[in-house]
Amino acid sequence: TQLLEQSPQFLSIQEGENLTVYCNSSSVFSSLQWYRQEPGEGPVLLVTVVTGGEVKKLKRLTFQFGDARKDSSLHITAAQPGDTGLYLCAGFSGGSNYKLTFGKGTLLTVNP
Amino acid sequence: NAGVTQTPKFRVLKTGQSMTLLCAQDMNHEYMYWYRQDPGMGLRLIHYSVGEGTTAKGEVPDGYNVSRLKKQNFLLGLESAAPSQTSVYFCASSFHRGYNEQFFGPGTRLTVL
Fold first, then answer.
1. How near does any CA of chain B get to the CA of A93, in Å?
2. Which residue numbers of A have CB closer than 8 Å to B's CBs?
3. I need a labelling partner for B51 at 20 to 30 A (CA). Which of A44, A76, A98, B72 fits?
4. What contacts 24+ positions apart, CB below 8 Å, involve B59-64?
5. pLDDT digits (tens, 9 = 90+) for A61-105
């Protein structure tokens, strides 16, 4: 069974601070996705990383896929209250597998 | 383009009652999924479908049934609701190729008393 562990589980910071959250597994994934979920809504896809070592930037968010394609990180620069939400990573094994493996998420609160 | 829609948004049931949750997508996606989300448990896959007329069991299928009679719709049924089925239910859909990037609906919050 493939598992994705996310850390930290909870994170509360002040506006303007930087932060990094992690997504780790002992399994190799062909790609990894990051979603953000706001209270009362469904998850929304932020980014997909595909190549080992790949770095993608989305404004103040930087996503990195580990060289061995077993882990990923999300770094937020100068966090804003609008970044508040549950950040989920999800791994895709590819091939004939139709399912994603989701981590349990990091709940981020950015205080003004 | 509405994306993925779910009805109803909220529902309260008594133990033993039945209900059907409806998911609809207008993106012509092949794959559709039903998840439940509980505190501390993350998203857990209940059932999924890889095409019209097909369904398969996910991680936690007991107590649920599904049907995909039309490509755009995926129904989740609870035949005899139990308090353990109190949860938030999400439907998602994705293309049949690529990285299986999923598009989620807004969720249905179900309480079973």
1. 9
2. 30-31, 33, 35, 40-45, 48, 50, 88, 90, 92, 94, 98-100, 102-105
3. A44
4. B60/B36, B64/B34
5. 999 999 999 999 999 999 999 999 999 999 998 877 788 999 999
- Residue A96: predicted pLDDT: 73
Three-class SS of residue B96?
coil
Rounded Cα distance, B82 and B60, in Å = 14
Q: Do B50 and A48 touch (CB under 8 A)?
A: no
Which pair of tokens denotes residue A62? 């930087």
Question: Which residue type, as a one-letter code, is found at position B61?
Answer: P
User: How are beta strands A61-65 and A71-76 bridged, if at all?
Assistant: antiparallel
* Mutation choice for A interface testing from B23, B44, B46, B99 by most A CBs within 10 A: B99
Q: Which amino acid is at A23?
A: C
pLDDT at A2: 74
How many C-alpha atoms does A5 have within 13 Å on its Cβ side? 6
The reply to whether residue B40 touches residue A104, judged by beta carbons under 8 angstroms, is yes
